[in-house]
Write a structure and sequence with these properties.
This protein is α+β, with helices and mostly antiparallel strands and 817 residues long. Helix content is 48%, strand content 20%. It has 27 helices and 31 strands. A hairpin with a 5-residue loop joins β23 and β24. The chain is elongated and about 120 Å long.
């Protein structure tokens, strides 16, 4: 089990105790092993393991990383189950806030890692199972923020955020109205218009802005200071209070009735509020994809019970229930159509723009729009197991993850505010030492405080990731995490599986050759029995051919112990005889009789393979135990209509293409030739595909980034071995689990789109970070040297955050072809 290379550490306490759930123990010997493993971890004072409850109670003499404890259990051969809790966090304003919340969460006993996202205002926390969210929420509160368990994406979760944005908008508008008269003299002066407001009027306009509309900054700054940290709110609070206080001093103490600095404090606050409102709206737009997914699922379902339809809450439907969907309604559950035919619009789930025809036996997903007919759906998945819920989790996980480059930004953010405070102090003292008045020196220091913006640094990466993964989800591409985005950008070689990836995956049985006494239908019946319950495309094609050609009244052959042999074929006990269906070399290795008809059929098999067909040999052991060849089946599988365009799109991006398949050379060569694939290899067993991937990564051309595209269980090792695994959505859950990218529809053109979008997203991340760093690197010195007024500094600071999010939103317009 892989753990975070930077393990989190428990908080010091007089007596530390942690309860770890442990799986895999079966006896007292297991207990002893676990106790010994945990006791060997430095800092552990005492260990007690309860076999009945499967809990290890660990008492610590000093702080110990939770990850070290779980790793010790793993190394002993057991498992500490973990879970990821998602939390919503209110009150964060900049990258410094992110660092503080992550530190607070990481210090909770039982936390393995914590990742906080400023753009989505959320945290993903991996904890030992059973810890619960209470200690996490307490840690967040102690750090000065408000946390609560994240609601699933949907209408309820979406309703809360507009209120916060609307409140910010009202406060920003009111602040701008009050600050406008204060800014008027400064704005009109370049045009030769001299306008001076009475000091009392300036004070009346500035005071409600300073102490009412800016209260959110003071509250956040107080919480940060109480927690021993700093943030953007602290910089804004100190800077504006200094400008306001200086103005009040000059007016009331020194009787200065000329130029005061009330306008600087009020305008800075107004502009920062305006920036926060624009930022909140932009962030809401950026995360629209997840909310939209949640809104697709209907709140109610039309349940069919005893022939009568009942409207019930969708959450009350259980597996096996029949649910009715009428034309124009969204389907309430994942399931299989049992009655009715229709066309279904799945565009918001898969990105497929055209409606898909559905008939009895076809699967449908909850949230899809039923277009043309009444259907009855047998429920197969509910709640968190539905496709729409799984898509939502994948997108949320990707949006919450940190890109590798963000970790470097976090280290900068952790010291940003203290460094800015130090620069402001040096600015103040430097100007005083240079002979400037205290008034002038203080204003220059205020400009430094106001222009420094850790917000842009904190938003640069997550904003781009949220928009990028959202755009990808709408196109039918699910990206597992931010690291997959970074890797996809660097892919130089894409390796495809053939069946179901570049071809339709629905081969049809063509020629069937039988030995003496074996005709076509009996051979199909025997082959179908040997396949058992296999879901392999060749097995499905045999069953389809049998249904079309055989009499429905004839019984199926009795089958025992049917099993697939990866890369070879299938074997089963059928009617008391061992039956094998698969490759010729496999049957020969198992002792198949290679006399007639083998020799006679070999030439025909070669001709079929040269024509691009897949040939399977059918063998049956007779009563004497001799494996007799009784038939030969040929299968034809057409390339997907979009496959050639997909290969061409990858070549246009400078990406090399390879085709790896366990099929015969003739079939593989034909597909490669038709589609324009540059390199191909046939007869590759599933267990060997991973080795081929490794060879491509470190071949004679040097180290290259390799992506593997597949859709089956036998593709999972190769998907895991590649730098980037890409699973077709029509494939298996095993393949999707091993992949960094999942394509929600079986369209190979999405591979090129996924790579192009990843490049565009990472490009936006780097643009955002570049401008965020340049802005601070240029703006702070300008302010320190007196070249920026506090008003201009405030405007620049507000613009920097908004520009980062708006730049990220431009990903929606990126061209992927």
């Amino acid at each position: 089990m892989n753990r975070d290379p930077n393990p989190v550490t428990l908080t010091p306490a007089a007596a530390l105790r942690l309860d770890l759930p442990v799986r895999g123990m079966s006896c007292a010997s297991c207990v002893a092993h676990v106790e010994k493993a945990l006791a060997a971890v430095p800092g552990v004072a005492q260990v007690g393991v309860n076999l009945a409850t499967e809990v290890a109670t660990v008492r610590l003499a000093q702080p110990v990383a939770t990850a070290l404890l779980t790793q010790a259990v793993d190394d002993a051969g057991y498992e500490v189950p973990t879970e990821t809790l998602r939390l919503q966090i209110d009150g964060m304003t900049c990258a410094s806030c992110v660092a503080r919340v992550e530190g607070a969460l990481a210090a909770v006993p039982g936390v393995l890692r914590a990742s906080v996202n400023l753009a989505s205002e959320s945290a993903g926390v991996e904890v030992v199972q059973g810890l619960g969210s209470a200690p996490l929420l307490a840690a967040i509160a102690a750090a000065g923020y408000t946390g609560h368990s994240a609601e699933p994406a949907g209408a309820a979760g979406a309703a809360a955020r507009p209120d916060a944005a609307a409140t910010l908008g009202r406060e920003a508008l009111l602040a701008l109205l009050l600050a406008a008269p204060l800014a008027a003299p400064m704005l009109l002066a370049p045009f030769g218009v001299a306008l001076a407001l009475p000091a009392a009027l300036q004070w009346l306009l500035a005071t409600p802005v300073q102490f009412w509309l800016a209260r959110r900054f003071y509250v956040a700054a107080y919480k940060a200071v109480r927690a021993g940290a700093g943030n953007m709110d602290l910089l804004v609070s100190i800077g504006t209070l200094a400008a306001y206080g200086l103005s009040l001093y000059l007016w009331r103490v020194e009787g200065h009735g000329g130029h005061l600095y009330f306008e600087a404090a009020a305008v800075v606050i107004a502009l920062v509020l305006l920036g926060k409102w624009l930022e909140a709206r932009a962030k809401r737009e950026a995360s629209a994809a997840v909310r939209l997914l949640g809104q697709l699922r209907p709140a109610t379902a039309r349940l069919l019970r005893d022939g009568t339809e009942h409207m019930v809450p969708a959450d009350s439907v259980r597996r096996g229930d029949l649910v009715v969907a009428l034309p124009g309604e969204r389907i309430a559950v994942d399931g299989v159509i049992r009655a009715g035919r229709t066309a279904v619009d799945e565009s918001l789930l898969t990105g497929e723009s055209l409606p898909v025809d559905k008939a009895p036996g076809d699967r449908v997903a909850g949230g899809a729009l039923n277009i043309s007919g009444r259907i009855e759906v047998e429920t197969a998945a509910v709640g968190a197991e539905t496709l729409i819920a799984r898509i939502g989790r994948l997108v949320e996980d990707a949006q919450a993850a940190k890109a590798p480059i963000q970790r470097q930004v976090d280290r900068v953010a952790a010291v940003f505010v203290p460094v800015v405070l130090a620069i402001a102090a040096v600015t103040l003292l430097g100007w005083l030492a240079a002979g400037a008045s205290g008034e002038s020196a203080l204003i220059h220091a205020v400009s430094v405080l106001v222009i420094a913006c850790p917000c842009a640094l904190g938003l640069a990466t997550p904003a781009a990731i949220i928009v990028g993964t959202g755009v990808a989800a709408r196109r039918g591409v699910l990206i597992k995490d931010a690291e997959a985005l970074e890797v996809a950008r660097e892919v130089q070689v894409v390796v495809f599986d053939k069946t179901g990836t570049l071809t339709e995956g629905r081969p049809q049985v063509g020629e069937v050759i039988g030995a003496v006494g074996w005709s076509r239908v009996p051979l199909l019946r025997l082959a179908a029995a040997a396949n058992g319950a296999s879901t392999h495309p060749l097995a499905e094609s045999v069953r389809t051919a049998l249904r079309a050609e055989a009499s429905a009244s004839e019984p199926n052959l009795p089958v025992q112990q049917a099993a697939a042999v990866p890369g070879r074929g299938v074997q089963a006990q059928v009617a008391g005889h061992e039956v094998l269906l698969g490759r010729a070399d496999w049957l020969a290795a198992l002792g198949a009789e290679t006399a007639a008809p083998w020799a006679t059929w070999a030439a025909r098999a070669q001709a079929l393979e040269a024509a691009g067909q897949t040939v399977s040999w059918l063998g049956r052991r007779d009563d004497a135990g001799v494996l007799q060849i009784v038939g030969l089946l040929a299968f034809a599988d057409a390339p997907k209509p979009t496959a050639r365009a997909a290969i061409a799109a990858l070549h246009a991006q400078g990406v090399a293409t390879h085709l790896l398949s366990g099929d015969n050379r003739g079939a593989v060569a034909r597909v490669a030739r038709e589609l324009g694939v540059q390199h191909f290899e046939a007869g590759v067993l599933p267990q060997d595909k991973a080795a081929r991937i490794a060879a491509l990564r470190t071949g004679p051309q040097g180290t290259r980034r390799v992506a593997m595209v597949g859709d089956g269980i036998n593709d999972a090792p190769a998907l895991a071995a590649a730098d980037l695994g890409i699973a077709m959505g029509s494939g298996t859950d095993v393949a999707m689990h091993a992949a960094g990218v999942t394509l929600m529809r079986s369209d190979p053109t999405l591979v090129a789109e996924a790579l192009a979008l990843s490049r565009a997203t990472v490009r936006k991340i780097r643009q955002n970070l570049f401008w965020a760093f340049v802005y601070n690197a240029v703006g702070i010195p300008l302010a320190a040297f007196g070249l920026l007024s506090p008003v201009l500094a405030g405007a620049a600071m507000a613009f920097s955050s908004v520009s980062v999010v708006i730049n990220s939103l431009l990903l929606r317009r990126v061209r992927l072809h």
